[in-house]
Write a structure and sequence with these properties.
17% helix, single chain, alpha+beta, five-stranded mixed beta sheet
């Protein structure tokens, strides 16, 4: 995700989220469970139970944006065992998450290359 010249603060919601939730439901989690304002200059990141999907929401001054990523084989390394319900990460840590790095092992997801015939 390279949409920002300077990535704003990144907040991860540690618990799993029902991925039927869309922007409004996720914004309510940000406000009521994370104790943050969904209108702040920040990215809010959510993960599903299987840890193969991410949803991000952010306010871009005129409306909410929703970003979604699904992994085909691997799983995201999600910090679910920490005591805090909200985790703030910097740009480097966020990029490690998207690139599939397990910070403890420093091992990325397997790179997959699909041809048009596989679709």
């Amino acid at each position: 995700m390279r949409l920002f010249s300077d990535l704003p603060p990144v907040y991860l919601y540690r618990d799993v989220v029902d991925f039927r939730k869309q922007i409004d439901g996720l914004a309510l989690i940000v406000e009521h469970e994370m104790g943050l304002s969904p209108f702040d200059d920040a990215l809010y990141v959510f993960c599903n139970r299987r840890r193969d999907k991410l949803k991000l929401i952010y306010w871009d001054t005129s409306g909410f944006c929703l970003w979604y990523k699904r992994l085909e084989k691997a799983r995201f390394v999600w910090p679910r065992k920490l005591d805090e319900p909200v985790i703030q990460w910097n740009e480097r840590q966020f990029n490690w998450l998207l690139e599939g790095f397990d910070v403890a092992r420093m091992k990325p997801h397997e790179r997959l290359i699909y041809s048009d015939s596989s679709l």
